[in-house]
Amino acid sequence: MFSKFFKQLFLYSAGHTYSNLSRLFLRLFTGIMFLQLCVRQMLHFDEIVPSFTGFMGLSPEGSMALLLAVELLSATFIIVGLLTRLAVLFPLGLMLVAEEIILSSQTPDAVTQLFNFQPGYPVMFIGIFIFMLLSGPGKISLDYIIAAHFTENDEDEQVLDKA
């Protein structure tokens, strides 16, 4: 009785991974977390800008506004699964820079104001973004729907079925 129950439990759980549902959950979780970070930065924009250095020839205000716009777009694209692998690249780079700044401890005040999290969070985001870069968005995404629309032959369909 018990052995049959455990046999079915382990056989069923080993064979059914729900990878597409897992990737959807991870996209939603990460996108919402990144969106929260962006909203928090928007709310404290005036406090962050004085300690933020401009880049690409822009003023600190312009640089911060550009950074927030790209964060907002990236988070939105990740959530809906649109151009996911491209949308992950900018936040991945941002988290690498954040971790470098936190580890070097050159400007602890600016980092805590800009990124508003403790050491360790960038590493978590880096790991998740690398996983998303490697695994892709899954079948529950706009990327998959668009790709399914463009399939023209059996070879394309086989590639999509393996996703």
Counted up, domains total: 1
Number of helices: 10
- Number of strand segments: 0
Helix content estimate? over 70%
Strand-pairing-aware structural class: mainly alpha
Following the backbone from N to C, one meets helices and strands in this order, namely HHHHHHHHHH
Largest sheet: none
Structural Rg: 20 Å
Mean pLDDT across every amino acid position: 79
Extract low-pLDDT stretches: none
Q: Estimate the global geometry from the Cα principal axes.
A: extended
β-sheet strand percentage: under 5%
Distance between the termini: 37 Å
Question: Quick recap of the structure?
Answer:
This protein is mostly helical and 163 residues long. Helix content is 75%, strand content 0%.
Describe this structure in words.
With 163 residues, the chain is mostly helical. The chain has one domain (22-138). Helix content is 75%, strand content 0%. The chain has helices at residues 2-15, 19-43, 45-48, 60-80, 84-87, 89-104, 108-114, 121-135, 142-149, 154-161. Helix 6 (89-104) packs antiparallel against helix 8. The protein is extended. It starts with a helix and ends with a helix. The model has no long low-confidence stretch (mean pLDDT 79).
